[in-house]
């Protein structure tokens, strides 16, 4: 019985060591959003903002969901969000889709 227990302890110790090694490796490989963002010219920034506004307007007109514009590491111009409700069940002010 003690042989099985010692074998299990060795396996657990080995797994813990491997886990620590993986965590140490991953800490050096993290990607920050500032590292990924490309430098843009003012013209490109204006076009991107226009594209974001267009995508937001179209999504709010064609969908019952709620969307926000936000920079994404994956190149998404808009992201879906969960709306917030007031205690009385109405939508909170910041969650009403803008249809301008």
Characterise this structure.
- The protein is mostly helical and 100 residues long.
- It is 51% helix and 8% strand.
- It has 3 helices and 2 strands; from the N terminus they run H-H-H-E-E.
- A two-stranded antiparallel sheet has the order 1-2.
- Strand 1 (66-69) and strand 2 form a beta hairpin.
- The longest helix is centred in the first third of the chain and has 26 residues, at 2-27.
- It starts with a helix and ends in a 19-residue tail after the last strand.
- The mean pLDDT is 77.
Give the helices and strands, then pairings.
Layout: H1 2-27, H2 33-36, H3 42-62, E1 66-69, E2 78-81
Antiparallel strand pairs: 1-2
Using only C-alpha atoms, the radius of gyration works out to 24 Å
- Structural class assignment: mainly alpha
What is the arithmetic mean of pLDDT?
Answer: 77
Largest sheet data: 2 strands, antiparallel
Q: Give the % helix.
A: 40-55%
Ends: how far apart?
A: 74 Å
**Count of β-strands:** 2
| Strand numbers in spatial order across the main sheet | 1-2
Q: What gross morphology would you assign? A: elongated
Q: Which regions contain 5 or more consecutive residues with pLDDT less than 50?
A: none
Oligomer: single chain
Strand content: 5-15%
Order of helices and strands: HHHEE
